[in-house]
Amino acid sequence: MEKIPVVQDYTPPFARDGKFHVRLTKGRFQNLRRLSSWPMLALFFGLVWVQVDGQPWLMFSFAQRKLILFGNALSWHDLPLLAGLMIAGACLLFFLAVAWGRVWCGFACPQSIWTWLFIRIEDLTEGRASVRARAENKAMNAERLLRRSAKHLLWIVLATLTALTFTGYFIPMRELVASVLQLEMGAGVAGWLVIMAGLTYANAGLVREKICLHACPYSRFQGVMFDRDTRTVSYDAVRGEPRANRRNADANSGDCIDCGLCVQVCPTGIDIRDGLQAACIDCAACIDACDTVMSKLNRPTGLIRFASEAQLEQKPSPLLRPRLAGYAAVMLTACSAVVYGFTGTTDLLVEIRRDRGALFTQLDAQHVCNHYRLKVESFAPGESLIRVSVQGEGQFELFGPEAINLAENNATWLPFRVCNQQSLPARSPLTFHFQGRQVHATKETTFLTQSI
């Protein structure tokens, strides 16, 4: 199999000064892309507003030192679960790449989704691609200036809403919006919003395909993921060549009439007829455009289609194969490990530190008190009081609050004193018990009667 060509100095075909205008098209794959992307957009912009019992349903709270995933609070000690989610997601990405190429990039990648949104705004304000292309050769007039200003204004609005929504997953959305409207947000939040809005505006509006080709690592390592049976957007050269327009066509001409629509609708500006390329994101826009032309000419569709190299050569090409099965096994294993990990999340996190200023206090020859500092964090809903007790191989008495009020002292270090009621060896095991309404935790430490 030939390697995927990677062009370092890449200029899209039919581009003027490196700039090209994407033509919007319709078809079954574009409908499928909208069917996958619009629900994702709705979830992104909608979930940030969802609250359950006055708490956000999904939020990464640095202030509260917890992650709230679909109403379930996780401690920072559960962060490895997010790493597991990323690993499982990467395995799914590899599985899709081996089976159908960069289908994730074309149908679900945020860069692609936002790029299509910005292209639609451009099409709405400045006209369709052919109109925009012709206008490039003309001097700027008042109407074009107004249309272009409207385009950039709408881009900025969408980029700002995107940055605001993304930030709302780290700061409660209602508080964030209130602080923005009242101009009371801190410099850090304001700077973050400006940076995020600027990156969204640049990536989806100005840079676009260069991100897919030069910044996204997926376009680089896809070459080692693909094999002869990977289904990618492909041009059937056997059927399409030699190309000829309808006027010059003869009995030896192929089905391709060299209309160039496959290039005009490509968001990365490539010519799929040149073969598999690193810039191709498998969005299938060229398939829809070509199928439309073939239907008008009463010719079979599928001149451009999802096909493997083996299929184009009319050879057997099984979709299920050992390599794909291996990626599927790794993906299922990673997903199973993450699911199992979520069953053992931390509901009650306790920490104990010995007071270094006074390790112990000698009351008399047999009685000694040790000083500790305790911190309790609850990640279970409905918990308000955590009762504290001690247990050991001797008789101990605990001095300090019998119950920790989580509403006032959650994640706060509190002083406690433990005293023995009988003679003990120099070091004795001691266990703290923390009991809530639905949660329970223990923490072991050492009781000292002599200097270490």
Automatic annotation (TrEMBL):
Gene3D superfamilies: 3.30.70.20, Immunoglobulins (2.60.40.10)
Keyword terms, alphabetized: 4Fe-4S, Electron transport, Iron, Iron-sulfur, Membrane, Metal-binding, Transmembrane, Transmembrane helix, Transport
InterPro entries: 4Fe4S_Fe-S-bd, 4Fe4S_Fe_S_CS, Cyt_c_oxidase_cbb3_FixG, Electron_Trans/Redox, FixG_C, Ig-like_fold
Signal peptide extent: none
GO molecular function: 4 iron, 4 sulfur cluster binding; metal ion binding
GO cellular component: plasma membrane
Superkingdom of source: Bacteria
Domain annotation 4Fe-4S ferredoxin-type: ranges: 247-275
Pfam families linked: Fer4_18 (PF13746), FixG_C (PF11614)
Ranges that cross the membrane: 35-52, 79-100, 153-171, 183-202, 324-343
Annotated coiled-coil segments of the chain: none
Designated name of the protein: Cytochrome c oxidase accessory protein FixG
Species classification: Bacteria, Pseudomonadati, Pseudomonadota, Gammaproteobacteria, Oceanospirillales
